[in-house]
Amino acid sequence: MEVVLESKQLCKTYRLGKHHHQHVLKNVNVQMKKGEFVAVMGPSGSGKSTLLYNMSGMDRMTAGTVMFDGQEISTLSETELSKLRLHHMGFIFQGIHLLKNLSVFDNIILSAYLAKKSSRHQINERALELMQQTGIADLAHHDITQASGGQLQRVGICRALINDPEMIFADEPTGALNSKSATEIMDILADVNQTGTAILVVTHDVKVAAKTERVLYMVDGNIVGEKLLGKYNQNTDEIKAREEKLSRWLMEMGF
Ligand SMILES: Nc1ncnc2c1ncn2[C@@H]1O[C@H](COP(=O)(O)OP(=O)(O)OP(=O)(O)O)[C@@H](O)[C@H]1O
Question: Which protein family is named in the record (predicted)?
């Protein structure tokens, strides 16, 4: 299968004052196939979010290479990187970063209007379709401040999908949600993945990771293990078994 994202010897070092450096990513090699659903787990501070930001070009790596869809991202200018992110990547964060003075609908369509890949009519139709799929169609013209945490996360998902990206990067997408909303959000992401969108998700939650097909375990700036779970099928009753299998492995890894 074709590769969508690959890091080789990826390093990220933060400079903390004149003589002190923190090596947060240490020669990380990760490969993701088109349409794959991968989770990154590991102790707090091990570098998971940093990995996500550097692999998506949100942050600049210190050394190594990252190829996205055959393109070496470290060679791109800021403008080229913004374009790549706008057209080909979607982002879902715990803190969401939605614009407070816009309605739910406007928050979702904004990046599509900027990308200009389709007509305004097509964009509006797509936004409505996504809102229906994620169960927030009634909120379209509400102010963003009137939405609950779970609803906001759905808005974030619609926004991430509006330009039909090849890949979604999600940092703790369920971190601020109760377990019912978290399950619903993960089911939506699993559906999105079924349509062929690759997803890289950073999470502390075994229930979230159990719905992905491969889990990477990160310790102190390195990937030290990986667990293959295979595609998750929502129609079967296998989720408990996957969670148990993953929990056992995480215990072995020292999680
Ligand atoms: N901009 C920055 N400047 C300096 N150090 C940073 C910066 N961003 C992150 N770090 C440091 O890099 C290390 C890894 O942070 P990162 O957020 O990637 O970890 P994480 O595994 O995602 O943690 P958590 O699970 O707690 O979210 C931490 O020690 C953090 O303090």
Answer: Belongs to the ABC transporter superfamily.
